[in-house]
Design brief:
It contains 18 helices and 10 strands. The protein is 43% helix and 11% strand. Helix 16 runs antiparallel to helix 17 (405-417) and helix 17 (405-417) packs antiparallel against helix 18.
């Protein structure tokens, strides 16, 4: 099997023949194991034979692969290192070696060095066995019927078109994902057009470039997180410079396949997406990984916008464009839909909105006709809420039964105050007069 272009950037083969007449030694075992690490086609006789053919004579590669499959019919959690140990212990196999000298691949974007899965387990503060369990290498958890066996808690939230399935990791896995976020993903740059879940970015920075525009178009990506598969997540970790084995386990720790019992009652398309490994909506790593996976989409849409004199920004699954009155909106919508499809996403055509200057232009909940600001009715609603809290007590106003009602209200104040310090100060003064314990 020919190597991919991505592999060629990491591996520069130099061939020389070395006669071998004794048992496979440590050096040969290491080369055989590394050659398998170049491929990403799963575990099997043909895959191993093709990998080994780069290192030993082709007629012997099949023999070695057969011996390995007899010993390990199922792929181990750390295939490269396990192969090295197994190959050293194989009986004598006279052969001729074609040496493969791999180049050292440094990590990128400030990501921590993780040479192998043992180092990954140490970084994440788990044992190698726990690493395999949390990665769910065998897909056991998808078939589990008992909730305690699952690494996630599931909740269905109603939305305008169906339900949203929130998959929140339990304590141990959440801590593992937070470590991955801090030590690996934090330094990887997202595209400048991306404003959701990024440092120094917000709904206000997403909406500001479109303020005062003659025409504003908003499009929505359907099933943003579930659409992103484990293969696309693995590509992010590979781009950071990690080996195929490490990138594979990192991707599995950050994705999940929803258990069968949790798919009941969902529509067919949603069940199909959730049944395969995907980014869970509710995991701390998912927003960052989604932004990095969508880098190609942002790059292409930014290029299209620049060529046509438009402005483009994205906030999570919201795509925003703005321009002049002469813009061909039909062509824009069609082009964006096709680019998104080509990048592995789907545009929710029913949520596309085109708003002109005489209409209310709203992006991420902010009105952008003049300058980004929370709608007046939302501001008045929070004022009324605070007034009633001060008059009758906070508990009487917690109609939706928020666990931390005070934090919820202060979050609303923060959102409104992000674009209006004057409104924020007035609301904070009202909040100071509320007895939140009553």
């Amino acid at each position: 099997m020919p190597r991919s272009t991505a592999d060629e950037g990491f591996w520069s083969p130099r061939h020389r023949r070395i006669p071998m007449s004794r048992a496979i030694g440590l050096e040969l075992a290491a080369r055989l194991a590394r050659s398998f690490g170049l491929l990403d086609d799963g575990w099997g006789l043909s895959t191993l034979a093709e990998a080994f053919a780069d290192v030993v004579e082709p007629d012997r590669a099949q023999d070695i692969a057969g011996r390995v499959i007899e010993l390990m019919p199922v792929e181990p959690v750390d295939p490269v290192n396990t192969l090295r140990r197994v190959l050293v212990d194989l009986p004598k196999l006279p052969t001729t070696v074609v040496a493969l000298d791999p180049a050292v691949v440094p990590t990128r974007f400030g990501a921590v060095e993780i040479p192998d899965l043992a180092a990954l387990a140490l970084l994440l503060n788990v044992t190698p066995t726990e690493l395999e369990w949390f990665a769910d290498r065998g897909g056991w958890l998808r078939r589990a019927w008992s909730q305690p066996l699952s690494h996630y808690r599931y909740q269905r939230l109603p939305k305008a078109t169906g339900v949203r399935v929130v998959e929140a990791p339990k304590v141990r896995l959440r801590e593992i994902q937070r470590r991955i976020l801090r030590r690996i993903l934090a330094g990887v740059p997202a595209h400048p057009a991306c404003h959701g879940f990024e440092k120094v970015c917000s709904a206000a920075t997403f909406a500001s470039p479109h303020a005062g525009s003659t025409l504003v178009i908003r499009q929505d990506l359907r099933d943003f997180f579930p659409t992103i598969t484990v293969a696309r997540v693995r590509a992010v970790f590979t781009a950071c410079g990690y080996s195929p084995a490490v990138a594979r386990v990192l991707a599995e720790l950050c994705t999940t396949a929803t258990p069968v019992a949790q798919l009941r009652g969902l529509d067919y398309s949603q069940r199909t997406l959730l049944a395969t490994r995907h980014l869970p909506q509710g995991a701390p790593t998912s927003p960052r990984l989604a932004n990095l996976v969508a880098h190609g989409l942002d790059r292409r849409l930014t290029g299209y916008a620049l060529r046509h004199g438009l402005t483009y920004t994205r906030y999570a699954d919201d795509l925003a464009f703005s321009g002049t009155a002469g813009l061909d909106t039909g062509r824009l919508i069609w082009t964006v839909t096709e680019i998104a499809r080509d990048e592995g996403f789907a545009v929710h055509t029913g949520k596309t909105l085109v708003r002109r200057a005489h209409q209310r232009q709203v992006l991420a909940g902010l009105v952008v006709n003049d300058s980004p600001a929370a709608p007046r009715d939302r501001y008045d609603a929070v004022r009324a809420l605070l007034h009633n809290c001060a008059r009758t007590g906070a508990s009487t106003q917690n109609i939706d039964e928020h666990n931390d009602f005070r934090a919820h209200v202060y979050g609303l104040i923060s959102w409104i105050g992000e674009t209006s310090p004057h409104r924020r100060d007035k609301l904070l003064a009202m909040a100071d007069r509320v007895d939140w314990t009553s």
